[in-house]
Specification:
The protein is 27% helix and 31% strand. By secondary structure, the chain is α/β, with parallel strands linked by helices. The chain has three domains: 64 residues, Roll (Archaeosine Trna-guanine Transglycosylase, Chain: A, domain 4), CATH 2.30.130.10; 107 residues, Transcription Regulator spoIIAA; 187 residues, Rossmann fold (3-Layer(aba) Sandwich), CATH 3.40.50. α2 packs parallel to α3, α5 runs parallel beside α6 and α8 runs parallel beside α9. The longest helix has 18 residues. The relative contact order is 0.09. S-adenosyl-L-homocysteine binds next to α6, β15 and α8.
Length: 391
């Protein structure tokens, strides 16, 4: 087995449990290997760090699977899937039949995402070295969850960077293309072979529900609505009027179909760029009681951070302009590269610029089925900041 020697200085994070060795952290590789093979990783003094798989074509060149000197067996992978699925049982609710079953590195299954939507399971493999375990993972999920169908959503473009094919196909069970699942008692339709990410934004379930407490009798604006997770929970919480904004036609269709599924009519659904919508609403002197901002990741890398900060500043500033005294802002960032303190400070600086005083209701994160692995800060990515405008 080839041995990867890591440069001095990077051993600390790896001994601390971080599972990634970047290309520029490798001093040299001893021995032969092919892409996807298992390799041993040692520090600059030759101390053993762990065993994982290598893909020289990927910036994340090695992903560590174990800190022991052991072969990674199918049985071990099966056990990890079982543990992941069983962990979710702590958080299961009767009114919710969707959950992320496997959250990659945070469940010790690097690059593997699995989600359950009602009777269906969707599996995505994003790292070359896990491809050889895909069948075992899929079969274990079927054993644990007993779904009607399991779909491989291997069409995420990032796979081409890993040198993997892009496809979406049925692995098991019935030919179901679209299905309906329940989140907090609200029905959502999902296209198992299409849709953004694996089709849903399950990380927001707890925040969707949180919104209900703040909206009774209120005028609510849901910006970056996607399938309407916030907007439909606003209905459940008794909002008097709701506007949902998204730039994508597909998202707009989803919001209206999901509303219909739940017998909800009269939502104001707008296809627009949220930046423009917010700015124009301010010009028209529109006012809202509650605004949700849940934009896509403005930055997927550290280098794009300053642009991202400007983006967050702009939408939060515009949203605050529209909020009445006593109004509530629920504002989000789903990019790991946007640090929590920088995000909070950016949002609060918008209030300062407007000379508005705010109360911090709370700072929350992703739902529990997206666990956080100690030593791997990348697994804690979603920031959900809730504010009340005091003047
Ligand atoms: N709030 C959703 C998830 C939002 S994902 C939920 O809780 O489920 C981000 C959404 O922002 C996507 O639907 C995308 O189409 C939309 N989007 C991206 N850029 C946008 C823009 N400039 N204006 C409005 N919507 C945008």
């Amino acid at each position: 087995m080839a041995v990867v020697h890591v440069i001095n200085g990077r051993q600390k994070k790896l001994f601390g449990g971080h599972p990634w060795v970047y290309r520029n952290e490798i001093e040299r590789i001893e021995g032969d290997f092919a892409a996807g093979d298992d390799v041993d990783v040692v520090d600059f003094r030759g101390r053993y760090i762990g065993r994982g798989f290598i893909n020289p074509g990927s910036v994340i060149t090695v992903r560590i699977l174990t800190n022991k000197k052991e072969d990674i067996t199918g049985e071990q992978i099966r056990e990890r899937v079982r543990n992941a699925v069983r962990y979710r049982a702590y958080f299961r609710r009767d009114d919710t039949d969707c959950e992320r079953l496997v959250f990659a590195e945070a469940d010790l299954l690097p690059g593997v995402i699995a989600e359950r939507f009602g009777d269906a399971v969707v599996l995505q493999t994003l790292a070359l070295g896990m491809q050889k375990h895909e069948e075992i993972i899929a079969d274990s999920l079927i054993e644990e969850v007993d779904p009607k169908t399991l779909v491989l959503r291997n069409d995420e473009p990032i796979r081409s960077k890993e040198g993997m094919k892009l496809f979406a196909e049925k692995y098991y069970g019935e030919d179901i293309r679209k299905t309906i699942f329940k989140e907090n008692g609200i029905k959502f339709e999902i296209d198992l072979y299409g849709g953004q990410k694996t089709g849903g934004f399950l990380d927001q379930k707890a925040n969707h529900r949180r919104l209900r407490s703040f909206v009774k009798g209120k005028r609510v604006l849901d910006c970056f609505a996607y399938s309407g997770g916030f907007a439909l929970n606003a209905v459940a919480g008794g909002a008097s009027s709701i506007t949902a904004v998204d730039i994508s036609e597909e998202a707009i269709d989803l919001v209206s179909r999901n509303a219909g599924l739940n017998g909800i009519y009269g939502l104001d659904i707008v296809k627009a760029n949220a930046f423009d919508f917010l700015r124009e609403s301010a010009v028209k002197k529109e006012r809202y009681d509650v605004i949700v901002l849940d934009p896509p990741a403005f930055t997927k890398s550290k280098s794009a951070l300053s642009g991202a900060v400007r983006g967050y500043k702009e939408i939060n500033l515009s949203a605050m302009r529209l909020l009445r005294q006593g109004g509530i802002l629920a504002t989000h960032s789903c990019s790991y590269h946007m640090p929590e303190d920088l995000f909070v400070n950016t949002v609060l600086s918008a209030a300062t610029d407007l000379r508005r005083k705010v109360r911090i209701i709370g700072l929350y994160g992703q739902d529990n089925d997206h666990p956080v692995l100690a030593g791997y800060p990348e697994s804690k990515y979603l920031k959900s900041l809730w504010l009340e405008m005091l003047n």
